[in-house]
Specification:
Elements (H helix, E strand, L loop, with lengths): L12 H12 L15 E3 L10 E3 L5 E2 L14 H13 L6 H8 L3 H15 L16 E9 L14 E8 L4 E6 L4 H9 L7 E5 L4 H5 L4 E5 L7 E2 L3 E2 L1 H18 L7 H13 L8 H10 L18
């Protein structure tokens, strides 16, 4: 599949459907109703919609969109592919208003699409690929806050939400919205996501020393005295760099992210970082993984989120 914006999957519905079938069913069609694979046939004829299959095991009918975030959507699959390409290849994200102009759809439709694509990016089993780190590997841990600035509000200080991230050097990131930054919450996030054989790297916060005792090693840098790197090894610059991209995206692209949807925006930024060029993933490969991730997920509400209007 070409990353070229002129790829036929972005304009041809048949090619778009075939591309989704190859991503979702690499070994042939699978019935989303009963899981059958043996007695499946394609239904032909002008009276039936393209891509319709019949399962002889459960006598059900289905297409490749059944059981995905695209189910019952009247939006052409070619536009879903194009939206996934844009959202996956934009380092700091893309607002729904920008997408609605580029795709030629309404703002509400673009908002509908972006949130379902973010849901496709979410890994509902974060430990499925194993813990971060390991022997001779370093995992950096840090927290930050996202939200409006006090100087931009006339009557009250806007509430900020805490985001905690774990980044394996030259590896992947896992982020989560935490209700409160304390030892209990952060320890749970760390010990369930990081191998105990790892070297844990943090700042000077009093939260981390006790947690660090559970790992192969624990190093810190003291930001309060403007110490950011010591010996080219002791630093948290990797996770700080990730936060810089996250904040530029939320502040510059989305402007506002509600607490309700924060987990999906974090999934978006985590996904792009984890599927970056540096790990050998192309724009086309990233879009394909996003479309594959739509399987088994549904969002049915339509409550608009306030985000970029630029």
């Amino acid at each position: 599949m070409s990353a070229d914006i002129e790829s036929p999957i972005f304009t041809d519905e048949t090619k778009a459907r075939e591309a989704l079938e190859s991503v979702r069913w690499p070994d042939g069609p699978v019935c989303p109703h009963c899981g059958g694979t043996e007695k499946i046939g394609r239904i032909q004829g002008k009276s039936h919609r393209p891509g319709l299959y019949y399962c002889g095991d459960c006598t059900g009918h289905f297409t490749v969109t059944v059981g995905t975030v695209f189910e019952r959507s009247k939006i052409p699959l070619s536009k879903w592919w194009l939206a996934a390409h844009f959202l996956g290849s934009s380092k700091k994200g893309m607002s729904s208003h920008q997408l609605h102009r580029m795709l030629g759809v309404t703002y509400k439709t673009a908002w509908f699409m972006t949130h379902r694509i973010r849901e496709a990016m979410r890994d509902l089993s974060p430990n499925a690929s194993g813990p971060l780190g390991g022997v001779n590997k370093v995992v950096e841990a840090d927290e930050t806050y996202v939200g409006g600035k006090a100087k931009n509000r006339k009557y009250h200080v806007p509430k900020k939400d805490a985001v905690f991230s774990l980044v394996e050097r030259e590896g992947k990131v896992r982020s989560a919205h935490v209700p409160k930054v304390n030892a209990k919450n952060l320890r749970k996030a760390i010990v369930t996501q990081v191998s105990r054989k790892s070297y844990l790297m943090t700042d000077e916060s009093v939260i981390y020393p006790k947690i660090g005792e559970e790992f192969a090693g624990h190093g810190t840098v003291n930001h309060s005295i403007e110490e950011y790197v010591r010996g080219n090894f002791w630093h948290t610059n990797t996770v700080e760099n990730y936060f810089s991209i996250l904040k530029r995206g939320i502040t510059g692209t989305y402007h506002h992210v509600s607490q309700q949807h924060l987990k999906r925006y974090l999934a978006e930024f985590d996904f792009r970082y984890n599927e970056r060029m540096g790990l050998g993933v192309s724009d086309a490969g990233r879009a394909a993984k996003m479309m594959k991730g739509a399987e088994g997920k549904r969002l049915t509400y339509r409550q608009p989120d306030r985000e970029a209007t630029a």
